[in-house]
């Protein structure tokens, strides 16, 4: 789990659900996202403008990548390859295979405001959503933007792939929208929340 308390915690709920088995310390501001990747590593990103890679075994940091803007979201592409995005509006793809040398594989530009969430649709397609009210669909093989979906009245903050070429998106306009990626059309809107 990650938290605004600047900590990342690993829990073994079968052994002791009240106490974390490992606590990762090092971020200086709220930790906004964390994912487990290959080789016993966890990656976290934070408002402190860092992306950090941790060794699960001892809780030690192995890599730290800094940015000029906070990172808000992470998504695993494959094995040790991840995407990260945040305040600088760009999506970056990193290869974290080597602790000694982190490689930025690609940078995707297309959003006009902060990127809030990333979701892998399939091994070749990444979706991103932003405060610019858009959902971008990216072709990872050809390294280009496929399409921009627009429909929310305010920024889009969360995204989930549902299977069958469907994406669910939640926005600051308190709407949930279901998009069909084959037709690039919104198929359903759900309204009912009074806050985002």
Number of strands: 18
List the strand order in the largest sheet: 3-4-5-6
The global form is globular
Low-confidence stretches: none
What level of helicity do the residues show?
under 10%
Number of helices: 0
What are the secondary-structure elements, in order, as H or E?
EEEEEEEEEEEEEEEEEE
State mean pLDDT (0 to 100 scale).
93
**Computed structural class:** mainly beta
- Termini separation: 21 Å
| Most strands sheet | 4 strands, antiparallel
Proportion of β residues?
Answer: over 45%
Rg on CA atoms, Å: 17 Å
Write a brief caption for the model.
Helices cover 0% and strands 56% of the residues. By secondary structure, it is an all-beta fold.
Give a verbal description of the structure.
This protein is mainly β. It contains no helices and 18 strands. A hairpin with a 2-residue loop joins strand 11 (about 115-120) and strand 12. The mean pLDDT is about 95.
């Amino acid at each position: 789990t990650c938290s605004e308390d600047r900590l990342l915690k690993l829990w073994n709920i079968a052994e002791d659900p009240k106490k974390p088995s490992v606590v990762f310390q090092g971020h200086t501001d709220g930790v906004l996202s964390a994912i487990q990747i290959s080789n016993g590593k966890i990656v976290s990103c934070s408002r402190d403008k860092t992306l950090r890679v941790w060794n699960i075994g001892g809780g030690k940091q192995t890599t730290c990548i800094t940015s000029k803007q906070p990172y808000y979201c992470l998504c695993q592409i494959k094995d040790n390859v991840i995407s990260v995005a945040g305040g600088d509006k760009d999506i970056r793809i990193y290869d974290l295979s080597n602790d000694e040398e982190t490689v930025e594989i690609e940078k995707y530009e297309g959003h006009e405001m902060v990127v809030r969430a990333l979701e892998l649709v399939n091994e070749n397609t990444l979706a991103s959503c932003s405060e610019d009210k858009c959902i971008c669909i990216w072709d990872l093989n050809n390294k280009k933007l496929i399409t921009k979906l627009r429909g929310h009245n305010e920024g889009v903050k969360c995204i989930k792939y549902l299977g069958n070429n469907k994406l669910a998106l939640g926005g600051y306009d308190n709407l949930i929208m279901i998009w069909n990626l084959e037709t690039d059309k919104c198929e359903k809107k759900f309204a009912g929340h009074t806050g985002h």
